[in-house]
Amino acid sequence: MIPDRKIRRSVEKNPTDTVRIMTTGRIELGPTGRTVAANVRRLRESRGLTLRALSAALKERGRPLSADAINKIENGDGNETRGIRRVDVDDLMALAVALDVSPLALLLPHDARETTEITAAGQVAGREAWTWGRAFEPLGYRQITDEDERTRALMAFHLASSPVGITQQSRQRLEAADDGPSVD
Q1: Which run of H or of E encompasses 131?
Q2: Rounded to the nearest 10 degrees, how much is the dihedral formed by the CA atoms of 69, 75, 81, 83?
Q3: How far from 119 is each of 29, 33, 36, CA to CA, in Å?
Q4: pLDDT (tens digit, 9 = 90+) per residue, 74-97?
Q5: Cα→Cα distances 76→40, 95, 140, 172, Å
Q6: CA triplet 27, 30, 31: central angle to 5 degrees?
Q7: Considering 90, 129, 167, 175, which has the largest number of Cβ atoms within 10 A of its Cβ?
Q8: What share of the chain is helix, strand, coil (3-state, %, to 5)?
């Protein structure tokens, strides 16, 4: 293990965007990592791309990943004993661009009819996962029974989940919901 102070000194001496940290320990993938691995393999194969062809497409887009690295990403889709590789957010975006899909198509289950496991949320209906991912409703929204609380939760979710320029209508609705009568 590299001591933290050595990493800090290295970053201070070399102020770049790249920090290389090698690890020899076992890499554990969570449920979202396994979903990404399965979706990368499924989408690559459905497009008739070899590992080398996807690697070339990523290199053309400025995010080179070797065919071996992609193979290690895909190995995370099961209980493989072979080498695996985590996908960082920049890899995820580049893979989505190269595969011509939304990043959600990599992050969420392909079949919305089944239950899936979401990191930090546990088991979730696939449809609920997609509704959440597409910023339509927060996770657990349909379990809220109080109508005012549901309205506030939905509006707060929209406000926090939408980029500047799209949030004004949600903000207005949230303010209107807060100004309404309160029942204690």
Answers
A1: helix 126-133
A2: 10
A3: 10, 9, 12
A4: 998 766 556 789 999 999 999 999
A5: 10, 15, 28, 44
A6: 145
A7: 129
A8: 55, 5, 40
Q: How confident is the model at residue 7 (pLDDT cuts 50, 70, 90)?
A: very low
pTM above 0.90, yes or no: no
Q: Kindly give the pairing relationship between strand 115-118 and strand 122-125.
A: antiparallel
Distance of alpha carbon 107 from the chain centroid: 5
Report which DSSP code applies to 63: -
Q: Which residues contact 160 (CB under 8 A, 6 or more apart)?
A: none
Report which residue type is found at 73: I
**Helix, strand, or coil (residue 87):** coil
Answer for the pair 148, 177: CB distance below 8 angstroms, yes or no: yes
Residue type, 163: P
Burial class (CB within 10 angstroms; exposed 0-12, middle 13-18, buried 19+) of 42:
middle
Q: What angle do CA 177, 151, 118 make, to 5 degrees?
A: 145
* Chain position carrying tokens 């990493």: 7
Q: CA 31 from chain center: how many Å?
A: 11
Residue 17 in tokens: 């965007």
